[in-house]
Specification:
The chain is an all-beta fold. Helices cover 0% and strands 46% of the residues.
């Protein structure tokens, strides 16, 4: 289910147009890779500690799952065996609506972003709370080695860099080619690969690849299934007798990008795929090369899924049925003529 989002804007500032731009030529037709998936195991809902899992992160040799039912974080070995479970104390309990997103910590731990509770809890590889930082708006972030992090925003298409205390430092310099209305729905999935930031806009068929140095050009990549930025619906609502102007993104259209993973120089985008038969929705993984933004091909997952993590040829997927599946991709062998 795609939940509606309501964002109340108190003040806004207009940002200057950026200078650097590199546009990737868009592809218009998917190229399906020839091969098949082999199951390496699964955890079914209600077994193995899973209880309405909604978010997934792979850090080091640990797979982390957020269970929305009890509001816990589950740490699994790469074969799916349970290592430990984090149940927060009352002071750090996850918000009742469970809008929580996990991000891999570079030390092998996990960041559990809970913007409706106003915080992100950083958990060590052993399951201990290392620190808590303030967090609001979008739950999607990407930690950096020095403890700082990039974070997306619902309104506006500019992800921002925050320091280790959660204080905003600057916004990402966008390429000129990334045109979007001021009231665009800008929420994005973020991932770090080395020092490079990858941005996948949730509701638009668009990616950014941002190298670590500010003077380097940010690459603007169109997805293989282009889609424009949607706009918020604006309205005035009365809150405690005060009229407030709001922006709301409703469940009118499905998201473009359901999940994002980066591994070995390849971007893996779990895409809604509105072009083909309904059976492909939530099953299409499109691949792009980080260094160039070039589209590499697509694979169909065996089951509709909502979250993925990737390590080599192995995909960890949370399926729509609430299960965790582990699949290995086996490319078809080319036979000589």
């Amino acid at each position: 289910m795609i939940a509606s989002r309501l964002v109340v804007i108190v003040a806004a500032a207009c940002a200057a147009l950026p200078r650097a731009a590199t546009t990737q030529q868009r592809d218009t037709t998917r190229r399906w890779e020839n091969g098949s998936w082999r199951s390496l195991g699964e955890l079914t809902g209600g077994a193995g500690g899973l209880d309405h899992p909604i978010s997934l992160a792979l850090a080091g040799n640990t797979l982390y799952v957020f269970n929305a039912g009890p509001g816990t974080v589950l740490a699994l070995a790469l074969d799916g065996h349970v290592r430990w479970r984090y149940t927060p104390p009352d002071s750090l309990r996850f918000h009742v609506d469970r809008v929580v997103s996990l991000a891999p910590g570079l030390d092998g731990g996990v960041w559990a972003a809970d913007p409706n509770a106003g915080r992100c809890t950083i958990i060590s590889p052993l399951g201990a709370v290392e620190r808590v930082i303030p967090l609001h708006d979008s739950p999607h972030l990407a930690p950096r080695p020095d403890g700082s992090f990039w974070k997306a925003s619902f309104i506006g298409v500019r992800p921002s860099l925050f320091d280790a205390r959660g204080v905003r430092v600057r916004a990402l310099r966008l390429p000129r080619t990334l045109t979007a209305p001021k009231d665009a729905v800008g929420d994005a999935l973020l991932a770090m690969t080395g020092d490079t930031l990858v941005v996948a806009y949730v509701d638009a068929g668009r990616f950014l690849i941002a190298p670590p140095h500010a003077h380097r050009q940010v690459r603007d990549v169109w997805s293989v299934e282009p889609r424009p930025f949607p706009r918020f619906r604006e309205s005035d609502v009365v809150i405690r007798g005060r009229t407030v102007h709001t922006y709301k993104a409703g469940p009118d259209a499905p998201p473009a990008t359901l999940a994002l993973a980066v591994d070995s120089g390849i971007i893996y985008s779990l895409y809604w795929n509105g072009r083909n038969a309904p059976g492909d929705r939530g099953r299409t993984v499109d691949m792009y090369r980080v260094s160039t933004g070039v589209y590499e091909g697509s694979r169909r997952l065996p089951l509709p899924s909502s979250a993925i993590a990737v390590r080599g040829d192995v995909v960890y997927a949370l399926t729509d049925g609430g299960d965790l599946h582990i699949w290995r991709w086996a490319a078809a062998e080319l036979r000589p003529r």
